[in-house]
Amino acid sequence: MLEIKNLAKVFGDRVIFKGMDLTINDGDVLSIVGPSGIGKTTFLRILAGLLPADRGELILNNESLNISGDRQGAQVGVIFQDFNLFPQYTVKENVTLAPQLVKKLSKKEANNIADELLTNLGLEEQINQYPFQLSGGQKQRVAIARALAMKPGILAYDEPTSGLDAGSTERVIKVIKQLKEQGVTQLIVTHDLPLAQAVADKTFDFGTDVLRGGNL
Ligand SMILES: Nc1ncnc2c1ncn2[C@@H]1O[C@H](COP(=O)(O)OP(=O)(O)OP(=O)(O)O)[C@@H](O)[C@H]1O
Question: N or C: which end of the chain has fewer CB within 10 A?
């Protein structure tokens, strides 16, 4: 379970959001909607531990997560819009690198995890290819496999269907539903209402469900 309590972010003298309270239960899929520029990606970056928050708490499975923007570990997996794959590494290497470096798994253990994830995600034929050889939907599934290889407590996506055609969007919906069946807790920032309707247990509206402006 992820609990967000009274989270706030300020850029300069501008309160981007404050008073953010939200709970996501294990295995649930939450969609986060809201107009452009409202702070959704900023929130994901805070959740991923890449950007500091100015106030509040993030509690994942009863463990408090550091909100100072320099978190170690991989409790939260985030798939950003540009996927951030390592261009110089193959698909398999993209997935096996962090488990070996961060989790200190052996190459064999990391390979076994990668083979299973990549097969489940329909990427067995791409295992030895490089990111530039992949379609947008394939890159996204590699990013999902890479995040899942670290066994995160929660998986979050920033606009997972933007730039994808109808077929790839269907595939994303299938993957999200499949992960939900496996009990993975997921959070999806999206403008795609059909996607939200197809997969979400509940919706958080970043436009109306947080406070903004004024002082902290
Ligand atoms: N590093 C930064 N410094 C100052 N302001 C920033 C910074 N990053 C984002 N902002 C501002 O914070 C606000 C929220 O941006 P954010 O990217 O989180 O919005 P968003 O809801 O994800 O928008 P979109 O749906 O268009 O991606 C914007 O007004 C943006 O200009």
Answer: C
